[in-house]
Inverse folding.
């Protein structure tokens, strides 16, 4: 097994550098991002090591996993650890969730001390344990409270404030435009919109017709989010969308080069190999060692990423079974190297229509 602290191969780094040079920076509010493709906040995934990896692989900016304002205010050690930003990260936002404006403002003030480029409010999470407290997408139910909610948080910080919302609570209460207008009045700088309602959770299709209407008519810059899992769809939306930016969530988990591949020109012979994917595994291990307390916690975190990255290659079911039976990190990496570096088909074959993590993370 090769050294986990080794740099990426010259060939892989060459491909990455070439495609990153083709990106064009964009502005969202007062912030300049390196490209219009941003990493979505994902629970238990958007950690500092993963965000850093995605930035290195072309993400124009990233957002952390959702972090409880109450955990911050109660000085919970694990919660405050979630606020840590790697010094190599460039364009990162930290996302908070909570239902009480004063508690959110206090937490936002603490969060700002960790050095984020912006602070984001989670108003889109549909899971019961968040919604049940009045946070997440539950905040969309009563817009009369949002002006005070936004202004209280905004007054407590000096960095830009953004929000991530859904189209509405359900099909009968689509109110994203109303929420965006209120946000603008209170100094929110840009808005990410997931193209589903809370009632949809992560089922069905994102409503791109409504997302495009927001991109065209909303008074703030819109980041469109939903179902951007494939290179072809991301490339199409980059050309045609009226939204300022696009947010990729679940797609990069199986294809870590999704922020770069849309910049490959038609007919150009650039593609990422199984060996490239194994190098990405090693790099994530390297970054994660700085934040994991034990080899076991590191193994649990890395194993899920390995399984996602293996999707689309041959014998993945057999490989997955072996991984779950392997209790040591070093042996896991040996098995992983063998899997990726002995693939006869050098191209990943993902089905565009495959359902993926429909229980929700992004």
């Amino acid at each position: 097994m090769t050294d986990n602290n080794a740099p990426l191969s010259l060939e892989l780094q060459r491909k990455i550098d070439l495609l990153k040079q083709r990106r064009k920076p964009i502005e969202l509010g007062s912030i300049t991002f390196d490209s219009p493709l941003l990493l979505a906040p994902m629970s238990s995934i958007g950690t500092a090591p993963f965000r850093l990896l995605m930035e290195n692989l072309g993400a124009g900016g990233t957002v952390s996993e959702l972090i409880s304002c109450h955990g911050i205010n109660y000085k919970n050690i694990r919660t405050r650890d979630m606020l840590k930003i790697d010094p190599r990260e460039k364009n990162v936002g930290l996302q908070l969730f909570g239902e009480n404006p004063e508690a959110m403002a206090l937490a936002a003030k603490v969060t700002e001390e960790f050095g984020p480029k912006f602070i984001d409010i989670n108003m889109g999470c549909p899971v019961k344990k968040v919604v049940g407290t009045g946070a997440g997408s539950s905040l969309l139910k009563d817009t009369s409270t949002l002006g005070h909610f936004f202004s209280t948080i905004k007054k407590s910080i000096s960095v830009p404030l953004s929000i991530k919302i859904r189209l509405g609570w359900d099909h009968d209460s689509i109110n994203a435009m109303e929420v965006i207008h209120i946000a603008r009045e209170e100094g929110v700088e840009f808005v990410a919109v997931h193209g589903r309602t809370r009632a949809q959770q992560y089922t069905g299709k994102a409503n791109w017709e409504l997302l495009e209407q927001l991109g065209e008519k909303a008074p703030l810059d819109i980041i469109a989010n939903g179902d951007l899992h494939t290179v072809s769809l991301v490339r199409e939306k980059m050309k045609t969308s009226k939204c300022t930016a696009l947010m990729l969530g679940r797609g990069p988990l199986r294809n870590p080069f999704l922020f770069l591949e849309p910049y490959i020109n038609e007919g150009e012979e650039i593609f990422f190999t199984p060996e490239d994917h194994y190098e990405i595994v090693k790099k994530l291990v390297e970054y994660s060692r700085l934040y994991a307390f034990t080899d076991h916690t590191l193994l649990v975190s890395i194993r899920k990423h390995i399984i996602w990255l293996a999707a689309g290659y041959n014998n993945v079911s057999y490989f997955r079974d072996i991984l779950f039976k392997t209790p040591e990190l070093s042996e896991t990496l040996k098995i992983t190297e063998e899997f990726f570096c002995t693939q006869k088909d050098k191209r990943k074959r993902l089905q565009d229509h495959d359902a993926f993590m429909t229980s929700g993370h992004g």
